[in-house]
Amino acid sequence: MEKELLKKLIEIPSYLDKKRGSSERRYCDFIQKFFRKNFKKYKIKKIQIERGRENLLIIPKKPKIIFCCHLDTVLPSKKNHTKIITKENKLYGLGTKDMKGGTVSAIFAALELPKRLQDKVGFLFYCDEEHGQKGMEVMVKNSSRIPKSVRYFVSPESSFKLGYGCRGCAKVKVIIYGKRAHASRSQQGINAGEVLFDVYKKLKDNLQSIETRLGKTSATLVSMNLGVLVNGKIQTQNNSVPDYTEAIFSVRLSKNISRQKLKTLFENEIKKTHKLSFSVNVQQLRSPSVMTGEKDLKLFLESAKQVGFEIELSDPGLSGYNDVAMISAKTGIPFFNFGPYGEGNHGADEWVSLQSIKDTKQVFKKFIGNI
C-alpha cells in the first residue's frame, strides 16, 4: 500500500519550471482529495502563497504534532524521472527520498492509528522549499493559525537518523573599494581582493567562537567578482591593481542574531584592516531552529527503541538549512528531522528504501502514541 501511494505521488509532477510555472497545483489537489476521503474529521485550511500556489494546513481540533511536508521537488534530470522504478527494495524516482517517501510514512502512520490517536496528528503541505522558500515565509506570517496544542513539528526527511535542529543561514553581500595602481608598482595601490581575503580569514576565526548545541557559526565565501571599476562596470586590466570587489558570503548561524548586528559584525571586521570605502548588505536572514530539549530527544529515541530501532542522532552542525526552522523559531515549537533511508537527493538516481518507509511509519506511530 505504501508503494502504491508513493507511485501516485511521484507520478504527479510538482516542480517549478520557469517556462511552465509551478506544477504543485495537481499534487495539492490530490492531497486534498486523499484527506477528504481518509481523514473526514480533519479541517483543510488553505493559505494563499501567490496565484496558483497555496499551502494546506490539514488538522484536527487539537493536534500535538504536525508533519511538515513540502510539495515541490527539483526539476527532473532525465526522461521518465516521474516514473517509479523498482530494484529489489529500492524505489527510484524524482522526489522519492526528498521528500515524498517520508510523506507516505507520515500519512500511513496517521491512517493506521486508532481514532483517538489520529486526533494528535496534523499536516502542513507547503510550497517552494526547493527554491525561494515562499511557502514557509508565508506560513511564518500566518503562524497564529498553528494551534497552541502543538508540541512538535516533524520534517519527514532524513536517512533514518534523527535530526533535532539546524543552524540558521544568512546571505551577506560585501563591496570593498581599493586603490588603483599600475601592476608593476602594486605597493602604490590597495588591492581590493587582498583586503577581502584578509577580512574573510579573520571573520571565519571570530565567528567560530560563537557556538551552541547546534554547532559553530561559520562563514563561507561563495562568490566573488574582482577587477577595475570603469563607469560602473567591472573590467579586468592586466596592468592594474584591482580597485573593486564584490562578494557573497553564506553564514551559518548557531544562535539568533539581528540583521543590524550581523551587518555591524562584518563592518567592524572590515574597518580593522581597511580605511577606504566599503558596503555591507544582509540580503537574507534565516533564524536557527529552537533547541530541541533532552527530554524530547529521549522520548523520540525511546519510542524508536520500543519498536526495535536504535536511532543515531545526526549532527546539526553538519546539516543543511531546513526551512521548518523558520516556523520553529517563530512559534518556539521544537522540530525533528526523521524520515526513511535513501540516497541521491536531487540526482538522476534518487531512491528510497521501501522497507525503511514502513520502518519509519512504525517509529512515527509509537512516538505519536507516547506524546
From TrEMBL:
<dbReference type="InterPro" id="IPR011650">
    <property type="entry name" value="Peptidase_M20_dimer"/>
</dbReference>
<dbReference type="InterPro" id="IPR050072">
    <property type="entry name" value="Peptidase_M20A"/>
</dbReference>
<keyword id="KW-0862">Zinc</keyword>
<comment type="similarity">
    <text>Belongs to the peptidase M20A family.</text>
</comment>
<dbReference type="InterPro" id="IPR002933">
    <property type="entry name" value="Peptidase_M20"/>
</dbReference>
<keyword id="KW-0479">Metal-binding</keyword>
<protein>
    <recommendedName>
        <fullName>Peptidase M20 dimerisation domain-containing protein</fullName>
    </recommendedName>
</protein>
<dbReference type="Pfam" id="PF01546">
    <property type="entry name" value="Peptidase_M20"/>
</dbReference>
<feature type="domain" description="Peptidase M20 dimerisation">
    <location>
        <begin position="165"/>
        <end position="273"/>
    </location>
</feature>
<dbReference type="InterPro" id="IPR036264">
    <property type="entry name" value="Bact_exopeptidase_dim_dom"/>
</dbReference>
<dbReference type="GO" id="GO:0016787">
    <property type="term" value="F:hydrolase activity"/>
</dbReference>
<dbReference type="Pfam" id="PF07687">
    <property type="entry name" value="M20_dimer"/>
</dbReference>
<keyword id="KW-0378">Hydrolase</keyword>
<dbReference type="GO" id="GO:0046872">
    <property type="term" value="F:metal ion binding"/>
</dbReference>
